[in-house]
Amino acid sequence: MSLWEYANPVKFMALSGRILPWAAWLSGICLVVGLIWGFFFTPDDFRQGSTVKIIYLHVPSALMAINIWMMMLVTSLVWIIRRHHVSALAAKAAAPIGVAMTLIALITGAIWGQPMWGTWWAWDPRLTSFLILFLFYLGYIALWAAIEDNDTAADLTSILCLVGSVFAVLSRYAVNFWNQGLHQGASLSLDKEKNVADVFYFPLLVCIAGFVLLFIALVLLRTRTEIRARRASALLARERMA
Amino acid sequence: MKALLVRDLRLAIRAGGGFGLGLAFFLIVTVLVPFGVGPQSALLSTIAPGILWLGALLACLLSLDRILALDWEDGTLDLLACAPLPMEAAVSVKALAHWLTTGLPLVIAAPLFALLLNLPSAGYAPLVLSLLLGTPALSVIGTFGAALTVGIKRGGLLLSLLVLPLYVPTLIYGAEAARRGAAGLDTSTPLIMLAGITFGVIALLPFASAAVLRVNIR
Amino acid sequence: MQLAVDTLSVARGGIAVLEGLSFRVEAGKALILRGPNGIGKTTLLRSIAGLQPPLNGTIDAPEDSIAYAAHSDGIKHVLTVRENLEFWAEVFGTGDITSALHAFALEPLASRPAGALSAGQKRRLGLARLLVSARPIWVLDEPTVSLDVDAVAMFADAIGSHLSSGGIALIATHIDLGLDADILDVAPFKARAPLARDDAMEGFL
């Protein structure tokens, strides 16, 4: 039994059908618990006041925005190397979720930035990098939408994802060089001593788990839809030929 | 390879080839900027390096779809795919031809247009040098974008959408070098980074462009 | 030298159009493909020319031996006839274009821009490109479209001398070129199931 067996659509449909409700329910529970805990049962920050509570949306969505691109990179590589259709479809399915996460991160960031920095938008390296990531997502989705032939679209978007990833990293360095910003350093890390206080940290972890599960549920649902759509068009083609 | 280069240059220069369009577009951008931001020389001289870089980038972007679309429509790409020339070489030559007909004229014209924007005299050499180092990257990256969108009807807008984020590092380092030069600062770091990007994309990106083109021809 | 195709299946847009096709063309022979529109002749010829991968089966021909000509000739309108041909001669590393110009009676047109040619004249230029490629196997997709009777005769002569010098021609055409060639009707090879390009997806259907 190898992992690659789940690249078979039948196996994937069976397994994803079993995982999907669990992921959906768990994500709902985590988000409800995490957000309520974070919004109502944590103290206000001594400098930032209650505005700090937006981290329960901002940090998980920002984290997902980057990780979804990474997941698309991996699935694109799997498509290029092993040519499993499910992998290409999963990348296609993940992109709109990624763009939504990026948008949430940008908007919550702006809402947080207004009272903190006195501006909705600043050309800070992190903000700029997210804006560039947003453009990459848009281009990727637009390319999928523009090409009729499925395999051609999968090939081209995979290569774009690969090349785009390299340029995204280059852009990140370039943007850092271009402007040292306002944004605080990472609030979460495993090895750093100076983390956010535990009282904020645990509800944040729950929220992150909620976002991850939400992504899993959505990407499974969307991949299943893509597979079904592909199957429908193949059946139509068979009918036309008969 | 030489034959392809000569043919592309010939096509660009003859009627309808679009040679000079990029240059005219660059001129128009440069002329329009003072209307937009006001005629104060001090302001213009501050933003001149950025405007010139952006103008060159947009002028380059404008001509990208000509790199491959015409050869796609009349079947030349199919025939080239059967020819004893590797696709990687073909896309590299096409990028070179694009640079010679679009990028290089922009580099040469930039100091003239810089006069219009009151660029400080210290800024001329860094501007030309940064454009000379950076515009080849614009052509090579643009060829990749053109290869991605070659099979799409009216793909020009999509081409811009795909290519613009890829242009970010080149623009940042290029414009930064020009800006630092105009301010009399040291330009070596951004110029080295810019050269790194240019040589990197020249070495690697043709493989991606060729792969993409083969997929599109299929 | 020969062109051998064994149990070949080809697909257009991910859907199989022809399957189980086998044939063999020896040096000096021509094979004419027949079949109704849309059956997949163009797809088949593009696969044999190496422009797209086949679904299944093998295509056996010496490396770099195939010259392909289709509806679009890759003719640049602003270049002259001579410049167009010289370009391909250089790409294929052959150089001499006088015999190609002569074979399709293009000498009087040599210095005219290709854009000023009629459709039939352009077609002749496109076919002259085959001669400058100096490739032994010609894969031709409807080569006689918009040719007049004289031009078809020129074309038949060119094919004839190509074959007599040991070349091979694979031609999809509906008109009789007066060649001594085998005819293969591809209609019986029409694909029955629209099999997707990989087995994983097929298992799902």
What does this entry look like structurally?
- The complex is a heterotrimer of chains A (242), B (218) and C (205).
- With 242 residues, chain A is an all-alpha fold.
- In chain A, 78% of the residues lie in helices and 0% in strands.
- Chain A has helices at 9-40, 55-82, 85-117, 125-146, 150-178, 198-241.
- The longest helix of chain B is centred in the middle third of the chain and has 30 residues, at 87-116.
- The model of chain B has no long low-confidence stretch (mean pLDDT 90).
- Chain C has 205 residues and is of the alpha/beta class.
- Chain C is 30% helix and 25% strand.
- Chain C has 6 helices and 8 strands; from the N terminus they run βββαββαααβαββα.
- Chain C has helices at residues 41-48, 81-91, 98-103, 119-133, 149-164, 199-204, and strands at residues 2-12, 15-26, 30-34, 56-60, 66-69, 137-141, 168-172, 182-185.
- The longest helix of chain C has 16 residues, at 149-164.
- The chains are: A mainly alpha (242), B mainly alpha (218), C alpha/beta (205).
- The A-B interface holds A 132, 135-136, 138-139, 142-143, 146-147, 152, 155-156, 159-160, 162-164, 167-168, 170-171, 173-175, 177-178 and B 144, 148-149, 151-152, 155, 158, 161-162, 164-166, 168-169, 172-173, 176, 189-190, 193, 197, 205, 208, 211-212, 215-216, 218.
Quick structural overview:
Helices cover about 80% and strands about 0% of the residues of chain A. Chain A has helices spanning about 10-40, 55-80, 85-115, 125-145, 150-180, 200-240.
Helix/strand layout:
The complex is a heterotrimer of chains A (242), B (218) and C (205).
Chain A: H1 9-40, H2 55-82, H3 85-117, H4 125-146, H5 150-178, H6 198-241
Helix pairs in contact in A: 1-6, 2-3, 2-5, 2-6, 3-4, 3-5, 3-6, 4-5
Chain B: H1 2-13, H2 21-37, H3 41-62, H4 65-73, H5 76-82, H6 87-116, H7 124-149, H8 156-182, H9 188-217
Chain C: E1 2-12, E2 15-26, E3 30-34, H1 41-48, E4 56-60, E5 66-69, H2 81-91, H3 98-103, H4 119-133, E6 137-141, H5 149-164, E7 168-172, E8 182-185, H6 199-204
Parallel strand pairs in C: 3-7, 3-8, 5-6, 6-7
Antiparallel strand pairs in C: 1-2, 1-4
Helix pairs in contact in C: 2-4
